[in-house]
Structure prediction request, 332 residues.
Amino acid sequence: MLEVCGVDKTYEAQPLLQNISFVVGASETICLLGPSGSGKSTLLRMIAGLEFPDAGRILWNGMDLASTPPHLRDFGLVFQDYALFPHLNVFDNVAFGLKMKDRSSEEMRARVAEVLDLVSLRGFDHRKVTDLSGGEQQRVALARALAPRPRLLLFDEPLGALDRALREDLLNELRGILLQTQIPAIYVTHDQEEAFTLAKRVLLLHDGQIVQQGAPADVWSKPNSVWVAQFLGLGNAIEGRVVDGKWRVETRFGVFTVKCAHRHQVGENLHLLIRPLAARAGMNQIRARVMDVVFQQDHFKITFDGGLYFYVKDEPKIGQKFGIKVKLECLG
Prediction:
């Protein structure tokens, strides 16, 4: 089990990571999800032993890893740029970690064949890695990380350089491999689709801190701040003011009745999330002029005067007044 305890890191005299703590359990896949510059890749490099925290500890099964060099941590790394050895063929790239562990030739051949089969590259042993496509090179990088049977896998934006269709294929294959091998993993990404597909638990990083964590469905359904809601693209975040004790909130789009678990006082300012899918029932409705209509797959995305957007089944006309029942949530 990996434990990250109170880790701090500064960069160019500015705080990059502040008091980061979390645990990765046996066979668990977690995702560090956040925008560029949030410190997630630096955190991964510290876990790998490639950088060092300014404060805090990184433990494996209770033992501090501070004095353990990267090659002795038994962690497998997969990077966005593949980091393959261009002068070696596929077999030698995949066998590299096994050679470092002085495995026999017979054991290496068997293990390389096993992991190449796992990543759908059977028969690629003698191919030059420079002749492979981007997706094939990333499969080789994954096979190389898997070959020594690491006790933890670390992924740093591994699919970022691939086109969308290939990324989706590899993402689903990677999910299957992690489920099959049961190796615990930490996956760094700025893409919520990747995070939600792979992770049992998502940790959202913002301004150097973990601002929310939980199962993907819980994070999606219960964002705890405006930033989380906007980063995940959950809908429209608007400001409001409590106008009475019956949960009536005044906004520039109207007065709405909102129930939540927070304690609010009359006159208090708060933020509301308006989900873009129409509510099936409820007393809250927005009626405004349609400024734009775009067809997206099986629905129309409409944008109202004022910037609010929604997804509807039937196409309205630009310029017409349009009413829609809405679901509102309090973001505090």
Q: What stands out?
A: Residues 235-330 form one domain. DSSP finds eight helices and 19 strands in the chain.
